[in-house]
């Protein structure tokens, strides 16, 4: 009988507690990045803070290595509310909001701080709001992913140095446009086959962020790294608007603070890695070239003019002026 009274008392106590004190909600994040990379370390820090600040009511489960599908599939899952978070570049939102392509056009963005100003501008916030209203994607934060540079067996100091080069670029419209504006010959090669293509002179050069150039050992078959810095990329932390609306305001604030802290971890790791690689390449005997970017930007002006015609006169210059 006594045991029965205790059970009834516990049941009554649980019923009296608010639902938030009884339940643990697990949020799910899908990403392309691999376990251990800066983005993964950043979201791991965000997960720690979410659990800590919510007193264990909220948890964040991370699915790296495209476990939940391609980035397009994960974006769709976030739209439908089947996935709570994913990552995708601001400039890469052009498949859904076409004018976002301006932010992934070579030499429009000067550095990561400049990109943050672009996102915070009326132009950038218009894109952010369209993403939320039309696709159910709430932008929580923007993290630094890296700046793309060029490797070759010669220095790249001016646009003329690109002329006629067989240059491997991804099948990305802005990068193909950049290569053509430099009068290079963009050559399609699967990412996994780039090393062999460089080794056998199928292509003369390629472009990627420095950590990828290092990880893929491209400097084993290329003598020069030219810091062309043609494209600065971020990773937006995108959240399902359905998930956001289902959270209490206090928990929404926890999510924002957690991903800001995770972004700080990520940004420091990426920036430190890029700086250390420049020194490391030189120590290995690789020639690191630091060209004047003004000439490259000048060569992009016809592309900028086309973008202004497509979207709105003065668009590109208005973003350049935010530097």
From TrEMBL:
Residues 1-21 form the signal peptide. InterPro entries: DctP_fam, TRAP_DctP, TRAP_DctP_sf. The keyword Signal applies. It is found in: Cell envelope. Keywords: Signal, Transport. NCBIfam families: dctP, TRAP_S1. Belongs to the bacterial solute-binding protein 7 family. This is Sialic acid TRAP transporter substrate-binding protein SiaP.
